[in-house]
Amino acid sequence: MSDTVGNQVRFDFGAAQVLVTGGTSGIGAAIAAAYRDAGAHVTITGTRAAAGDYDADLHGYRYLQLDIEDAEQVARVAAGQQRLDILINNAGLALPSLGLDEYDPEVFARAVNMHLVSAYRMARGCRDALARSPLAGGASVIGIASMSSYFGIGIVPGYGAAKTGLLGLTRALAVEWGKYNIRVNTVAAGLTESRMTASTFENPAWSAPTLARTPAGRLGVPQDIAGAVLFLSSSAASWITGQTLAVDGGYTVSG
């Protein structure tokens, strides 16, 4: 499934069918590109009508429109996956980046629905297709959590509650779906460069404290998360399920 050349690990996902929600930018785009470059057939989702509506070059992907907050669209996309080996539940955003207040109960509910309920709906809808996967090491569902899964970040109570809940969902599905040869894991991303975090990266007053506490001495780039995701869905991780892997440069273990 992988080989090492120098300091680079190369994965082989030839012929694997992969679905990456929110795969048009940021972490999702890096994950999609990594699977594509490893030989997989990759489907990505985005909110716009067509792949051509994005400035990014999305060649090499199957594109599906999806509003992750729309349960009917989630069900339709999931039902369309007749064959699937790997599901990456990545879609979402912190609603304060849109100027919304997650302390408003309606906005809070939106955040939880987007990042937890819809992730469950997608996984549940894809379960039967995943159960038919012949992938070495079993099929995989991988969620994308965050540092707010471990501690409170005051501005995002809804996002944080959902990302914390994702860890519990990961454990429960891993226990229940092992009999289907489906592994379920989560990657908890540290502060990683993306469209959603652009304002944080651009403001040293916000990014500097995180950087100072990060033993690796740098903040994250999307490829850092992609590498961990590919590992967890590879046969090298065939005995790993129900786990959350923090990919944060050591932030969560630093005082």
- Rg from alpha-carbon coordinates: 17 Å
Helix/strand order, N-terminal first: EEEHEEHEHEHEHHHE
CATH architecture: 3-Layer(aba) Sandwich
* Average pLDDT taken over every residue: 93
Strand content: 15-25%
Overall geometry comes to: globular
How does this model look, in words?
This protein has one domain: NAD(P)-binding Rossmann-like Domain (Rossmann fold, 3-Layer(aba) Sandwich). Helix content is 37%, strand content 18%. A 7-stranded parallel sheet has the order 5-4-3-6-7-8-9, sandwiched between helices. A two-stranded antiparallel sheet has the order 1-2. The chain has 7 helices and 9 strands; from the N terminus they run βββαββαβαβαβαααβ.
Compose a concise summary of this entry.
With 255 residues, the chain is α/β, with parallel strands linked by helices. It is 37% helix and 18% strand.
